[in-house]
Each structure stands twice: as C-alpha cells, then as structure tokens.
Amino acid sequence: MAPKVFGWQHLTFLAVFLCIAVAAVLIVQYGMTTDKRKTVFLKCTALSLLILVVLNRISLAVWHRDAVQLLPNSYCGVTSLLLALTVLLGRPHAKLLHLLVYVALVGGIAALVYPNFLGQATSFFFLPTISGLLHHAIALLLSVLLLQCKHFSPSIRGWKYYPIGIGLYTLYGLFLLDVCKQSEAMYIDAPCVPGTPLKWWFLLLVGSTALLFVLLAIEYFRIRRNVRNAGRCLYALLRSALGRSDSPQDTHCDCEQTDNP
User: What is the DSSP letter of 160?
Assistant: First the structure.
C-alpha cells in the first residue's frame, strides 16, 4: 500500500524532522559562538540541500526515463537549487534571498504538511519521494537558520525581489512548456495543488500582496521598538544631566543594539 498523507510514515517523518530542526537551532544558538562557525554550519547545510536536490532530479529522470526531468519544474525545486548555490557561493544578505527564503519557508511548510507526491510508489523510501521530502525539509531548515544567524533579514526594501523573481520563474516555466513540453511546469497550466486556484498568477498577485502586508507589519514593530528604546535613552540622558542617576544602570540604554529599519 502506498504511503498516505497523515499516515504513520508521514507523521513519523514530521516528528523526526522536527526533532532534528530543534536540535540544529539549539546547536547554532549555544554551540556556534562565532560568525565563522555559523557560516560553516550554514554552508554544510546548503551543501546537503544541493546534494538532495540533484539526487531528486536524477531519480525522477531515471524513473520517467526522460532527461528533461533533470531540470527542476516547480517553485520549490528551483528555489532549493538556487538557495543552496546562493548560500554556498554568495554572501550574507544577498538580494536573491528576498525571494528564495520566503518561497522556501512557505513551500517547505506546505510540502511537509501536505506532500501530494507521497503516492508515487508503494515504498515511503522510494527515491523520488524521500529525496523530495528531504529537500523541502532542508530548504525550510536552512531558511530558518539564515534568519537565526542574521545572514538574512526581512526588509520592506527587498519586497520587490519577490514579484520580480516569480515573474522570472514564470518565464522559465514558459520555456519548459514550449521547448521541453512539460505540461505542469511552474504552475502555469496546472496548479500546485489540484482543484485549487494556486497557479502562477495567484502566487504572484496574492503572494506579493500578503508578503507586503507581513513586511509592513515587521517594519512597524521594528520602528516601534526603536522609538521606545530611543525614548528610554533620552530619559536616561536627562536623568544623568540633571544629576538624578542613582546607579550606572539608570543611564543604560540599548539603542545601539536594535536592528536598523
């Protein structure tokens, strides 16, 4: 019998991945005390992601006996490949991350919660299936680690790279449709979830709008925190100037520790 969504194999995989993800976050938080160690940890994670993506594409090409399957034909497939290469070869805060991290986070969560490709074979460890699950999981984990290590920070200034990136994904999908004859490429003719409107235009328009509101909310709370800290600094300085500071702690403020909006 083929594995099922929310079957015992799927739930076991989710539980194991959750434990690994929590362990990785704790290792970075308490074990990676320098930027160099964090960078090495991120690059090792990115390398494992690259291996899984390549393994997934090769297994699909062998299974379908079609070399065209070597080319990733979904948002998550392209994103996992580009994310791995960006972390391995690029620098922290690369502009491309303003597309890749968001797609990897949302796509990774969606694919892990509802992996509609589980029925590819009777075995849960069928190579296209397990490698697909794993590369979605590692892409999700890598995105979380990038945020944790401050190699990527959400910014309203970087919002424009999402719609631009989805537009480029769509152009690539048109190439796959017209030249490579892949009928389900990049959600142009077929939605990512059958029976839903989740095609490229929905992901572009609704995704861009939703991301904009999320980034505006983040920016609002970031500015609000900075203003509050600035008020505390001003109050401490006034007390110091008036000679009313009772202890060194009274003049302490953390304005310099806040992120720039």
Answer: T
